[in-house]
Design a protein that fits this description.
9 helices; binds magnesium ion; alpha+beta; binds adenosine monophosphate; 5-stranded mixed β-sheet; 13 strands
Length: 305
């Protein structure tokens, strides 16, 4: 039955289960307490959880979708993974969606999947576990068209089980949660907690915010926009990468919001796209006037990027 569904439907449905399995692996690593931290660069950490979660997602997806390009934050070396890390089942809710026509007959060679197996590593190592997300974004050509954000440490109040998974597909909408509009009459801006600098702060000041929420992870910040807790995510730095924004951008757009660089241009997500989001990130909640926030970015900030 599932094999009859279009590629994009199956890919998102498999990404939902793979991201949830990665979330379980992340919790297991933290419970064991052996993070084995590696410094990839300045202010850029990798832990055993990042590596294992990526292996789980990439092995699971590449076995099921051999012709699709998959790019993971933690590099491309494929290795032996425990069999129970590999998932092959697909999310039934996603399998039931009807895709818009332009996504129905996409070929594997035109698809690129961007995987951030653990977004918010810095916060993860500091025990700020609710900042952590698993991100799987799906692009067709240059455009981010679908994505999954999994929160390994979100607790279901009814069942006490851990892990919440949200998905979105261009022209379909979002699943796994219901977006909430942010409060009227205030301007709440979310931004980085651990990668700030003078230019980042200059862009924030220019927004005249009523409140600034400094939290970890691109996934977590876009969730704040979707949960009505912030109006905009402003990050005037080239530090974010394509795997940070592909899934959040697609889900945000599916819900009616927008994510661009600080000039208002969309980032490309084809396999040749440069990894850094060199011109910064501006994301706005559904219903917010994206152009208004763009107009507030000082020219001096744009020139710094
Ligand atoms: P943050 O908002 O600081 O949590 O950053 C969002 C995402 O971009 C995370 O995956 C960070 O690791 C990444 N990022 C942002 N700035 C930098 C930077 N200066 N160096 C390395 N990674 C960064
Ligand atoms: Mg990240
Ligand atoms: Mg990461």
């Amino acid at each position: 039955m599932a094999q009859c569904q279009p590629l994009i439907t199956r890919l998102i449905a498999s990404s939902v289960t793979a991201a949830a399995q990665a979330g379980k692996i992340i919790r297991d690593v933290m419970n064991k307490g052996e993070l084995n931290i590696v410094e990839k660069g300045k202010n850029d950490l990798q832990t055993e959880a990042d590596r294992s979660a990526q292996n789980c997602i990439i092995e699971s997806l590449s076995r099921q979708f051999p012709g699709v390009t998959i790019i993971g934050e933690e590099g491309s070396s494929r290795c032996e993974v425990p069999p129970h890390w590999i998932v092959t089942d697909m999310d039934q809710e996603v399998l039931n969606v009807k895709l818009p026509e332009h996504l129905e007959n996409v070929a594997p060679k035109d698809v690129c999947v961007w995987v951030d197996p653990l977004d918010g590593t810095s916060e993860f190592t500091q025990g700020l576990l609710d900042h952590v997300t698993v991100l799987v974004g799906v692009a067709v050509g240059k455009k981010a068209v679908g994505g999954v954000i999994h929160q390994p440490y979100s607790k279901n109040p009814q069942t006490s089980s851990m892990g919440r998974t949200l998905w979105g597909i261009d022209g379909v909408g979002v699943g796994g949660f219901k977006p909430v509009p942010p409060p009227q009459g205030r301007r709440i801006i979310t931004t980085t907690r651990s990668h700030s600098n003078k230019t980042v702060q200059e862009a924030l000041d220019a927004m005249s915010p009523d409140e600034i929420l400094r939290v970890g992870g691109a996934g977590h910040k876009v969730l704040l926009l979707l949960e009505g807790k912030a109006h905009a995510y402003v990050f005037a730095s080239p530090g974010c990468k394509k795997w940070d924004t592909c899934a959040p951008e697609a889900i945000l757009r599916a819900a009616g919001g927008t994510l661009t660089d600080l000039n208002g241009d969309l980032y490309p997500y084809d396999p040749k796209a440069p990894h850094p989001n060199a011109k910064g990130v501006l994301a706005t909640a559904p219903g917010e006037n994206h152009a208004f926030y763009l107009s507030k970015i000082p020219d001096s900030v744009k020139q710094e990027l």
